[in-house]
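Weekly structure sync, notes
Attendees: PL (lead), two postdocs, one rotation student
Agenda item 3: pending single-chain targets
PL asked that the sequence for the first pending target be pasted directly into the notes so everyone works from the same version. It is reproduced below exactly as submitted, 219 residues in total.
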Amino acid sequence: MPQPTDDISRALAYALDPVLWTRDVVGWTPDPWQERLLHSAATQLALCCGRQVGKSSVVAALACHTAVFNADALIILIAPSQRQSRELAIKVGSFLGSIEPHEELEESNKLSIRLARTRSRIVALPGHDPKTIRGFSSPRLIVVDEAAFVLDETYAALVPMLAASPEGRIALLSTPFLQQGFFYEAGTALEIGNAMRFRHGTVRVSAPLGSRSVVGKTR
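Predicted structure, written out during the meeting:
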């Protein structure tokens, strides 16, 4: 018979290791490059790669883990259009629905999910108008999907949120587009620290929270 200490140890291991949690509890096995991203402690991440390689899945897993293991966490999902951010929210909801034992949801629709136990909330917003994202404060995680197609003004509206959130993180992911804008700058920033190489590109992380010099360089 399992002992209480075994359950506590397992819960702690899941909280510290998103990869272990996604495998054992969600039932999703990440690829090696996705494992490295999930294990990253960087506060800012940038990932540029092709379509259908699993970038949306890995950030959905990260969003789920953040919501499950942090109380009152706000996770914001942004994409160029409401339809695109809704699709990412649906993927997050699908992962949450795969959790065993079942994680009760206090609220669940295509635009907003709230977990009953942790009170964490996941919100899907469009990125075509900065006004739609104002009013949110201290997010634990911001995910910007197809970031190369999101307005610079929208990104500028996100930075103050992170500055007020000491433990906040931001993940920028996109397919390549023009050689301009905040996502391109994220990929060509000079103030780069530790490097992490993924199968689908090179992602370097380390810019200070709230800095325009991100986090990531992909080739």
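Discussion points:
- Residues 30-204 form a domain with the Rossmann fold fold (CATH 3.40.50.300).
- The helical segments are 4-16, 18-26, 32-39, 55-68, 82-97, 152-163, 182-188.
Action: rotation student to compare against the earlier draft before next sync.
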